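pipeline/complex-builder :: batch 7 item 3
reading input block
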Amino acid sequence: MQKNIILAGVGGQGILSIAAVIDWAALHEGLNIRQAEVHGMSQRGGAVQSHLRISDQELFADLIGLGTADLILSVEPLEALRYLPYLAPDGRVVTSLDPFVNMTSYPPMEEIEAELGKTGHPVLVHAADLAKDAGSARASNMVMLGAGAPFTGIAPSKLEAGIEALFGTKGQEVVDINIRAFRKGLQLSNT
Amino acid sequence: MNHSRLLLLGAEAVAQGAIDAGLSGVYAYPGTPSTEITEYIQRSAPARQSGIRSAWSANEKTAYEAALGMSYAGKRSLVCMKHVGLNVAADAFMNSAITGVNGGLVLAVADDPSMHSSQNEQDSRVYGRFAMVPVLEPASQQELYDAMFHAFELSEAVRLPVIMRMTTRLSHSRAGVELKASLEQNPLNAEYAPGRFVLMPQNARVQYRHLLDLQPMLEALSESSFLNQPVEGHGPLGIIAFGVGYNYAMEARKAHGIECRLLKIGQYPLPRTQVNELFEACSEVLVVEEGYPVYEELFRSYFGSAKVRGRMDGTLPRDGELTTDLVAAALGVKPPETATTPEIVVGRPPELCKGCGHRDMFDAINIAIKENADHHVFSDIGCYTLGALAPYNAIHTCVDMGAAITMAKGAADAGLRPAVCVIGDSTFAHSGMTGLLDAVNDRTPVTVIIADNDTTAMTGGQCSSASGSKLVKICIGLGVEEAHIRTIVPLRQHLHENVSVLRDEFAYNGVSVVIAQRECIETVAKKKRRAAASAQ
């Protein structure tokens, strides 16, 4: 088993929490992990990405090669498109449809959706709405993790255990909201 | 299933390795991509329990000298910085190779090829050659951890500082790391050794000769290092892969079924025998270095350019960090056909946070400065460097830590009026104070605006060495007239008043300091989150 996953978003949107949950679950499955992330200047509202690789064999590179990503999981629709050169021919795009507009030249949503439509069978998610249903708009990254879960190679129950481990220190209510958010995303992806 | 592995960033693997190898103190100034080493030690409960000293230093030079002092006293010390930080610490570093060390001293330096968060992509291995000290360059997080034990042992065995070089990609990537049994700290064991440590010429000549005499032994130690390993292969093509270059070469070999010989390098000076063997066995050798073509250049003179492929002949790009795709292409693999990024995908550069005090400060500066024909603003390194971008376009220089003040001074000496600069509180403490003293001594007409957000914000909110009332006292102490040390609060409702203060000080024919004081909104939010969590 080997999965190459690109996590995409804007600095501050919580892609590192998604990475942390997948990392936790993969580590407890005894898998090898390499997960490169962006620190420093770009974190201030810039485009950020994380290359996440998990495998039952030895991994060398921290970066994913072009055309080899099994999954682009994005918490922002424009950012999903930025990394298309990494997508494998049979790779999947799973993205939130909630735009994060912090520049004047942000393209119209119809154009973004048209481009997303060209990627095969993208999973498009109204993440903020589902997160609010789950109890907090801040959990939209966990909605996206749920939507991406079937393509990560890790069982959803293991990812939920990761959510409990990661959010446990913040109290049971926070854990419950994030688990509900995760399940809403998962349900959407499975239907 | 293996639960004993910790998931660590490369930087954190260095930190954990140091803690487990009997570290007594870490000294550092924050700088991407090295910051997380020190932060990890500051957060570590075992490090606290064993009394490992870990607060931030004012700059890389003070950090390095303190680490050398701890080593002098017999204990193991670690000093961490980014590549350009080593320029600041270079005086101490170069001369510590002449004095040598007592307790193990490891300099962890993180280079930033592709300049993700830096002004240049200088290669710290050049400093290693310059000072003639051992350099380690592990390829993985596990190797970084293991190599920290090795680095301290090596440092104590040869009595030299040892460089642990890494680059952004490894420093900021996580992997599972298996820990080893931890070692006790060294006892206090300061030695009177003025012959080594008093670098007057007659001593320095002896010590330098000793450093030269050590070189064959350092090379022999590289020959037997676990970090230098040949990888089985055949055919006329060979690869010599340095640091994380090894990862990309191995990935490309695996993905494309290339079975060429490979020599992995992770310890310098180079193991000459192993390198000779590779070049003798192959008719062509690809040199894969993450950074400058430091060794490629030497190979070209030593083995002849015809045999060598790499960054200098365009087989690999001359600048920027490596990837598996670049190394695969250098090995003759046709690039994969992939989707392209749609044209509608515009860039998303970083920006000042919504609600950041720097925004209001730049609004005020822009109004006041544009009343003058010349409106140059010299600046420095920090979040406020983002003031160079739209919509502010408010600053016109950013060169090195502290240069805002001294460049403004030089421009004022040339006749530029007004001579205005913006520097952060932490950058001022790092390298701004001496420049301000120069301006005071010279009665140079400059206005120094200190953007005091009470933290080192760009690197994630580390403690600043001087902010608030301490800044005022420092400026008074350096001789700035109290009437021309003004404090403003950069908030929208104070815009009119702040412009007026700036206008007055720009017009003043002497040294003036305007401290724009408002806490970083990120650290305010962090404090609130912490308070809420502890209230639960």
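note: DSSP finds seven helices and six strands in chain A.
queue -> next item
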